[in-house]
Amino acid sequence: MTVDASRATSTSTPDGIVRNPQVDFSVIEEGAWDGRDLPYLPRIDLDIDPRLALNTEFDLEVDPITYQVLRSRFWNMNLDHSDTIKRVSGSANIVYMDDFNTSLLTENGDTIVCGPSVQYFTGHGDLAVKWTLEHRSANPGIEDGDVFLQNDPYIGTEHQMDTMMYLPVFWEGGLFCWILSNTHMGDLGGTDPGSFCIGATDIFSESIPVPPIKIVRQGMLQDDVVEMFVRKSRTPEQIGLQIRSQLAGLRLTRERIHEMLREYGPRVVKGCMRRMIKDCSESVGRRLEQIPDGRWTEVLYIGSAGPDDKDVHRVVTSVEKRGDRLIFDNEGSDPQFYAANAPFSAWRSSLMCAGAALFGYDQYNCPAGVADHMEFRPVPGTMTCARFPAAVSTLTASIVTVYLASQVLSKMALSGPDHIRRAANASGGVSLPGWWVAAGLDRHGHFIADLTGDSLNGSIGAFPDRDGVDTGGAWWWPNSNAGNLEEWESAMPILYLFRREQIDSGGAGRWRGGNGLEIAIVPHKTEELLTQIVSSDPAINTSPGLAGGMPGHPGNFLSKTSSGVRDVLGRGGLPASRTELEQSIGGLERLSPKSVSNLHTDDVFCVEYSGGGGYGDPLLRHPELVLADVEAGRLSVEHARKHHGVVVRDGVLDDDETRALRADQRRDRLASAAAPRVAASGTVDTSRVRVVADVLGVASVDGGYAWACSDCGQQLGPLSTNYKLATALVETNPNEIDPVAYPDPADFCDVAFMLRQYLCPACGVTLGAECCRADDDLLHDISFSDSGVEQLGL
Amino acid sequence: MSTTTDTTFAIGVDIGGTFTDCVLLGEDGTIVGAKSPTTPHDRSVGFFASIERAGEKLGLDVPGLFARTSRLVHGTTTGTNAIVARHGAKVGLVTTAGHGDVMFLMRGGGRTAGLAPDEALHVFSTAKPDPLVPRQMIVEVPERVDVDGEVVVALDEDATRQAVRTLVDQGVEAIAVSLVWSFRNPDHEHRVRDIVAEIAPDLFVTCASDLVSQLGEYERTTTAIMNAYIGPLMTDYIDRIESGARERGFTSGVLFAQCAGGAITGDEARTSPIRTVQSGPVAGIVSSQLLCEQLGYPNALLADMGGTTFDVSVIRNHDPLRRHTSVFQRYELALPMLDVESVGAGGGSLAWFDESDRLNVGPQSAGAFPGPVCYENGNDVATVTDSDVALGIIDPAAFLNGRMKINGGASRDALQRVGDRLAITAQEAAAGVNRLVDAKMADLIRRMSVMRGLDPRHFVMLAFGGGGPVHACAVAREAGVKKVVVPLPHVAAMWLALGAAVSDVTHIYQTPAEIRLPVQPDQLNAILGEMETRARDTIRHEGFGDVEPNFTRTLRMKYAAQVFDVEVPLGAGPLDDAAVSEIAGDFARIYDDLFGKGSGFAEAGVVITSVSLQATVPTHKPELPRVDEASSDAIVSRSHRSVFWAEEGREVDTYVVRLDQGVVDETITGPALIELPDTVVVVHPGESASFDDRGNLVVVISE
């Protein structure tokens, strides 16, 4: 084995054995961190009972062709594993929504390959396997033919409904590797059907989590364990079927691994596994090294996190980048609250999946290689790192951490070279603002309780070199399927009035965020329909832009009772959008994000799903692109004028007026802005400004380095300070900017929530933008360390 | 060539990218084939030229041949090409108010539909495909039908007229009408169609419910739009073929091969041209089905390796597997279609290094142009064909029967560059490229068999295409298939045309249902009876007289709480209580076979989601000829040359049988190469090959 000496100082593993501990226990709260009180954080040397023989031998020097054949086979057998679960489970959650994942892990629990289903599952499996090795190897032991089941969020999973089953593969008497699947099972008990327990104040009101338990013992499915597990559920048969599907997938994959071991031998097979980690780790490392060192922070807010809650909660992720190493902390996150919390493993998994999407997308999804560059410094007891027994079932903060992770890493990537930068992506996705469940009697008199797939239409935020994707799903959920409306009208007693892309819902920017979806339904052929919303307050926007781009429309729930819409239909009218609906029946009312309504046939229920965030100042968008959006019905003429300063009249672009309007808008912005808190003077030649976030840049000046506007050359203070201090600040309730695109935070929250836009005080271009509580300090979200300054090459 | 003086012929014509192939199939088993260059400006020219050439081989002019032709079946890629190249008509879409975005939503999955699973992880390079109809060409009309087919909002005819006029004013060349729930109640769609006809009588107009009778407004709309997209040009094309045939004395109607297998009449192809899309590969399955039937192979994996893709389809119990939806050009189509799956692995697949310096092969391809390095058309990245050349499998002097000059040295140099990067020899690199591409193909074979509950050990593999026979044996071995058949080498080049010639007129009817078991016999009998009457009427109307069609009747069924439906065959004749009582058991057995034992969730009940009828006008299928008559005119030469065998890790002086015509009575044991006019069969060490009595080359991989 030869190890490249030049890489000795890098984090990347040269032989596929992960040595990065991921946690420095001396800098985080003292405690056991064993998944009981504090969440589980594995130590690099696992405490495994010596009686468990591990098959650790491997040969890294496999010939390059055999390596590629086996690597592709790992990927394909893992896809087949997923297919088997789909076929046996046959449930809509799994087949349409792809709400599961499958993976393969080394004997000591490093994940070498993860499927292309839900990506935020990618960072849980390794924690579960490592915990099992540490806590189950002595008692009850880990033996050939066993299968474990677990869904304890304090060990590793999003919430209890995401239940893992995993099988140790033995070869020649030693534990060789693990096969794992994690599926969203559906109802597992707790106060609310479906197990999203909105009002839970601790985990004892939710589905009781199950730490790793042997569900198959030496080949025999343990009936007692299965019955104990399914007994919690309101739909035990379905849970039983799901267990069978996971078992079928594990067994098929074990057969494939055994075939491979017989053909190539354990040293070669394990060598390929280790090399996949090495390759991924090195590739991610190479990409990270091209980004200057520094620190970036992203803050998002959760409004109305529990019943009757009118507060706005802060969740934070920061990354400090050193060389090829990323150190994350969640400092500044608010205390845990109701069931809206993310367990540590969800926060970590979000960062791993965002890291893979940005820096490891061509490595067949090898989470161990991505995590090899990461260190986590969790502050427990917060919404991004819950402490037992906090409730976690609603996923609210767990999903928000996915967007936090993508935003903070995207901000960081913007300082890199073009090929790194282009993977950055403003927020967008599914499950924002949340979802709604309908319950009632269908037209055959059967009781149904179901949710539509509408939120899965999603949207993709803008990239640094192109627009986002309208109703493009979620970046972290590649193969989901929102279904046809005919499927939902068959399954539920509803009639859609419209289901369409919502014009103007993508965040404005130099590059536009993808538009989201709008729908309206009326109960149909049923007496009444109960609708329950499971959401945080969408007005507390979680769809931010990047580099000064505007946030996307964050979504909305609306209704009108005794609306008269049936009369409209009777007269032959069919309102085809929210605008047309309000023209025909009058204004809709916003619904609280936790409301339960009993709808009758003349009541209208309308949902707007979030659009993606924009990238860069909207006034910098090419007018022809704005015109193309207007022509394609993606953008209204009014929106084009108001947000992009582009004048389109009778389908024709007016260049002169556009130029004049844009100049006016910049002037007006500055006129309405607060003066910089710290005046910075001096300009630099714009050609010497090294851009780090679309227009925001850095330049070498007399006596050091300064922030600078790359549009006009204005200096924005020393690089050691927060550039925002030297900007002109416009602070607005987003609802005043656009009452449709940005619902009013004051409707359901007592805390003032604002959009801040940081302008160059000289030319008025937007350098950055963020939503925040009105009393928050200016967010210091970008800084470069000394080594980073050097790497900027000023 | 001689034939019985009074024999009648079925003619099949298939138009490919380069050549138009014609096969004459006599009732006495005579097979005559001919090729003529494809004429892209007007493909009907090449169409008749190919028939002329085939007739010449029998000493018949076209009118003379047509006088003895019982049917003429055409497999055309004209529609497919127009969709792929995006040069179809300017289409307008009329749809339900509030639902005009169905083609933009693409059910929320459009960003990754049709991508390989790993490509979906490259978020920044994923996007939806360009729309087939821009938003300006979509009009929404007030009307609404509900889940039961009941009218909630009547069609606003004035608004419809106005909407259609706006489309006509924008210069649309065809209109697709697709309304929500139209398959449950097509009245509104038909009324819109009539209104279009009033306003623009010559415009091509298509209703989704006339094409697809199944749930899913997205898939129906895609199908209707694509149908309209190719409607005008296909109408024009079919007119030219039909009038050309009439002018040359053909008195019956020309038939067109369709994607579900079988053929349709010109009239149906004019109204439903979408049914001709993908009919090319499907015709190959039809030929294979006939061959397997006559050779006694009930189960076969059909493997076709071309320049860019490797296509696999499956015949199980003599019947090709079908599917009801498929992704075509990244849009989901709802059409019954024979199931063909592809992976990006072909002769032109490029060998490239990724960010981690690992060797990969495909899916990017050099295609036919610039093609492999040895073509010397500007590509310098090694391809699979270059590897075959570098290993000595392909003899540069004999490539494509000597029709094309290639530079073997250029191939070796390209592989040397690959080898240098991996610190191995050029030949080791070539063997590596082949191993990677073979593994990829074996993965697809496994997905098409093992993952569908089929055991590859019980299947033969039929190998087609320029690259199929070269790689088939290695792929078969890796996938566990025991026998490879290279079908009728002297006919293989005309395989698709032969499939067209033997295609029967086929109609498929589907009635959507929502029937929970237990079902009453009368309920199913009524649905089936109605469809059978429709089928007889149609067939009579098409000019086939009172011939009784062959009916194949199936139910699509699923467990109520689960997603997957399966096809359950029904016997012939009216159903009684006994027949109906067997349905549940048949369903459970088929479900278990396909998805694994115990995978059904029976507690939730079982639902029939549709009733299908396939009506076929039967025709006589001639026996494919035995070859002993022809073997005397074999043109064969035997030699040895040096070939690198990966199994041996070295070059071996290898036995080469070159066969320009006919067959040889000889068991050829590997390592050996059998050079046929358009391909090379690679027989690996431990394998043996011989011809069967029909002239197929059979390679035994393992006993």
3D structure, described in words:
The complex is a heterodimer of chains A (794) and B (703). Chain A has 794 residues and is α+β, with helices and mostly antiparallel strands. Helix content of chain A is 28%, strand content 21%. In chain A, a hairpin with a 2-residue loop joins strand 6 (213-217) and strand 7 (220-221). In chain A, helix 6 (236-264) packs across helix 7 (266-289). Chain A is globular and about 80 Å long. Mean pLDDT of chain A is 95; it is low at 1-8. Chain B is an alpha+beta fold and 703 residues long. In chain B, 32% of the residues lie in helices and 27% in strands. In chain B, strands 13, 14, 15, 18, 21, 22, 29, 32 and 33 form a nine-stranded mixed β-sheet that branches. Chain B has a six-stranded mixed β-sheet with strand order 3-2-1-4-11-12, sandwiched between helices. In chain B, strands 6-5-9-10 form a four-stranded parallel β-sheet. In chain B, a hairpin with a 5-residue loop joins strand 11 and strand 12. Chain B is globular and about 80 Å long. The relative contact order of chain B is 0.10. The model of chain B has no long low-confidence stretch (mean pLDDT 92). At the A-B interface, helix 1, helix 6, helix 7, helix 12 and strand 14 of A face helix 8 and helix 13 of B.
